[in-house]
Specification:
Largest sheet: 7 strands, antiparallel
Bound molecules: flavin mononucleotide
Oligomer: single chain
Radius of gyration: 26 Å
Number of helices: 10
Number of domains: 2
Strand order of the largest sheet: 2-1-5-8-9-4-3
Structural class: alpha+beta
CATH class of the largest domain: Mainly Beta
Strand content: 15-25%
Length: 296
């Protein structure tokens, strides 16, 4: 393990480790105005939701590590505490990056990046028409984390109105995780795109409470075939299959074949049953996998 003490390495170096590891980060494309009404648009990946009632997001325009200057977005928010948080999808990621150019104060990044202003309903900064979801927000509080280079300024933005492009909705009226085509920021120049191929589901933990990995039989817990993910799946069941179900499984192929071929060789039997159970678990069939594992 490489171990780093933040107080012993340069901030710029620490930042590279943090940004590559605390990733992927969603992108808040923040539209703000100054008191004269000049529009600013900048991306921030130090961003997340932190509360649903009240609905609050946070993002952080930090002091530049290079020269300790502050961002126009922060200066604007101190003058006009309103912001539109526009969500960034794949189709607009290059323009979003371009908008992070350090243009002079007062220069409108909607214009520089070639994006379209859409009038907001409750706040003064405009929305980004190209963005699939736009949150009109008021600023509850800005928490400064210091005056040194790299110091963050946590903006607590309360959502007052949500606009969703209907093209990203599924048949159930909810946002379709494939259609929204999100992108996120990682370290350096890396981004990632949420595509159909890399989406997967993890069943929520049971409200009735799963048995946990500690209560798995030792031969399962210590298996050299089943992975940590597999053990997590097996631990998320409330109870084990009944003796009748296990007995029925032991008389059903391919389990029956494995049992017949491994009489007197419990190690080989476990290996083969674990391989079969692993296939079932990787396909999401936890109940069947349990029956296979206990049939031995
Ligand atoms: C995708 C992306 C994410 C960014 N995230 C942050 C961030 O979270 N905090 C920050 O201070 N700067 C971040 N930046 C850099 C700012 O966008 C950049 O400094 C910008 O010029 C600030 O504009 P402003 O001075 O007009 O507010 C990010 C840049 C990009 C492209």
């Amino acid at each position: 393990m490489k171990t780093l003490n933040p107080s012993e390495i340069p901030t710029a170096e620490l930042q590279t480790y943090m940004q590559a590891a605390i990733a992927p980060r969603p992108i808040c494309f923040a539209s703000t105005i100054d008191k004269a009404g000049n529009v600013n648009l900048s991306p921030f990946s130090f961003f997340n939701m932190v509360s649903t009632s009240p609905p609050v997001c946070v993002f952080s325009p930090s002091r530049r590590v290079r020269d300790n200057t502050t961002k126009h977005t922060l200066e604007n928010l101190l003058e006009v505490p309103e912001v539109v948080i526009n969500i960034v999808n794949y189709d607009m990621v290059q323009q979003t990056s371009l908008a992070s150019t350090e243009y002079a104060k007062g220069e409108n990044e909607f214009v520089k990046a070639g994006l379209t202003e859409l009038k907001s309903e409750l706040v003064r900064p405009p929305r980004v028409a190209e963005s699939p979801v736009q949150f009109e927000c008021t600023v509850r509080e800005i928490i400064s984390l210091g005056e040194t280079p790299g110091a963050g300024n946590i903006v607590l933005a309360e959502i007052k109105l949500v606009h969703i492009n209907e093209e990203i909705l599924g048949g159930d009226g909810k946002i379709d995780q494939e259609k929204i085509d999100l992108v996120a920021r990682l370290g350096g120049d890396w981004y990632c795109r949420v595509t159909k191929e890399n989406l997967f589901k993890v069943a929520k933990p049971l409200t009735t409470k799963g048995i946990g990995v500690d209560r798995l039989p030792a031969h399962i817990r210590n298996s050299n075939i089943l992975t940590g993910n597999n053990l997590g799946q097996l631990g998320n069941v409330e109870s084990l299959p009944s003796d009748e179900e296990i007995d029925e499984m032991s008389h059903t192929n391919p389990v029956k074949d494995i049992l017949d071929a491994t009489i007197g060789d419990s190690h080989n039997r476990n290996q083969q049953l674990h391989l079969l159970a692993k296939q079932l678990l990787d396909n999401g069939d936890v109940n069947l996998a349990w029956k296979v594992l206990l049939a031995g």
